[in-house]
Amino acid sequence: MKALRQRMASLQPFIVRAHRVRLRLGAKVDPIRQQLSARWRALSPREHRQTGLMLAVLTGALLWLLLIKPALNTLDHWQQELPRLRSQQAALQTLLGQATATDSAAPTTLLQRINASLDLAGLRGDSRVTPAGAEMVVTFAQPVDAARLITWLLNTSTTPGMTVQQVRIDRAGAGENAPETATRVSASVTLAAQ
Q1: pTM listed for this prediction
Q2: Which CA distances in Å does 113 have to 23, 101, 105, 193?
Q3: Which of 91-101 are b and which e, b meaning 16 or more Cβ less than 10 Å from the residue's Cβ?
Q4: Which is higher by pLDDT, 175 or 65?
């Protein structure tokens, strides 16, 4: 409650200034408003209808210029761009189809893909790949460099056709204080085909 009172006390000068500004504006606007009100009352019913019609036309024109016309221009632009984008998509699909057809050396089984990814990461000699049903378990019996392993895991998780199911990482030499073993880990990774 005390904090609220302090906050209100700090806002008091702003409230006073806003009130003064409102009074000054009111003093300037009130005569104009009274003059317009007197002129409106002096108009005949026919002039009231004409003025209302004019305001409706003016409002419609402003709505057209500010809201409707820009939206229609955007639609026209994309109607013209859509055929060009579709032709580019067709060309890209053709290129991707050719690339897939010519890539016959790409590994096809999960085991081949895992071995290829381990080769690229330089971890093939340190690992053993064992099938476990529909999944493959990659075991690193000897401690491997943690940075290489993490890089391989990140690349494997973005490889199409493979998903990382489970990862178990143990720091090598946890009981020792040797700095050379601080970045080496033993790991077991379970991978599955998508």
Answers
A1: 0.42
A2: 78, 18, 11, 10
A3: eeeeeeeeeee
A4: 65
